[in-house]
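Hi L., both proteins are below.
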Amino acid sequence: MQLFVDDLTVIDFSYACPNRGIVGESWIVDVLLKGDLNEQSMVLDFGVVKKQIKAIIDAAVDHKLLLPILCESVTATTSKHRDGHEYIDITSKVGNYFLHSPSCAFAHINDKKITIKSVTEHLTNIIFAELPKNVQGLVLKLRAEVIPSDFYHYTHGLKLHDGNCQRIAHGHRSKIKLYENDKRSETLEHFWCQRWEDIYIASESDRVAKESIELSPNAMQSLTDNHQYFAYHAPQGRFDIAVPSNKLEVVDCDSTVELLADYIARQLKKAKPENSYQVVAYEGVAKGAIANV
């Protein structure tokens, strides 16, 4: 017997890539279970699937930075600054990134690169170990949202969030709809998606001096004038990141989707004060915010 749940959840995360740097991503998760019927004449109660399996997935990869630990471009070491924290050093063709965060902010994937296949295998092993004995098979399908228009990948962190959004390097793959004088503008959408391609979005209020950043000894020796530094304390611990300037947008607000929609609207209005604008900004799949100016 087989039991399926489509659109079980969406995982929003970022991953380290030797070509693109740190990339924000959003994948939809479908689940198929195979097994014998239990004493309730079920393979597994839908409530258990929706709650327990979703919780396992969320704990394993959601709102984390996924690290391909077999890749030579990624180095993870134990923090000498704080208990329960890790240093992460990432080299890439677009620049080098250096992080220091609680260990819960990272997921170590046993592969050379982060792909749907490698993350599927990682999650399958974790989930299957928690399933009852009558469940004999598990098929996960991870898939990106089909977006016929432009979209962008972004990474950020929210220091004021009391949940996992506080992690300084999690992200999303998002579409955007922009209206100028009540008419949708694909030209403006393309511009912003190009501007925010594989971007790290930081808040100016989180900027710190190089002297106060907490990074690995290797990172401190590898920093260049191209790096900018951001750090904050949140309920889960201390978060630090050094980002190459060419992959960075610094905003004058927090990077919630509400304030990012407002930020884009303000930039558009500043360029052409005589026009009206509506920004429909998405945060991953099927959720977002609207700003009007």
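That was the first. Here is the second:
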Amino acid sequence: MIQPRRTRIQQKNSEAILEAALEVFSQHGFRGATLDQIAEVAGLSKPNLLYYFPSKEAIHVTLLSGLMHTWLDPLHRMDPEGEPLREIMAYVRRKLELSRDFPRESRLFANEILQGAPRMREAIEGELKALVEEKAAVLRFWMDQGRIARVHPVHLIFSIWALTQHYADFDVQVHAVLGETEPDPYPEAGLYLETLFARLLAV
């Protein structure tokens, strides 16, 4: 069945709800967020919000579905035909840029995982797992060719996630520790992480 096309104001309200929900969920997590909070931030009444989304979970799932595409794109772009270190460093940079540009989305994803991924388990065990296995095979191929050092490829990907997403998920801690000496941590973080992974993978 073809869904009727939304009017401009319906599209605007839907986007306002998702933007408000992103703000509320990233601050309070799924359990701590309420529809009343989301409606207030969106500037809509709760009944109006429920016209667009039938539940808090429906909003959350919509946000997470869009986020998964954004989050996986940098890994999709790792080119098996490219120069290995250049491709891996580009992946590190793109993941760090995601943390810089989408900190709320990163915290939304982290909160979902910490709760046991009740709304994302299928995507994690399906699309995400398959992509990681595909790129791990590429990394193993480069290692077998002697083009990068041999390390566990999946744990290498995990470590890239951990060391880049930290800057979004622990933003308050990062800025509190660095203080005024480094108000923008991302340039130095990028240099540090590229040096770290380049030395780890050098042959």
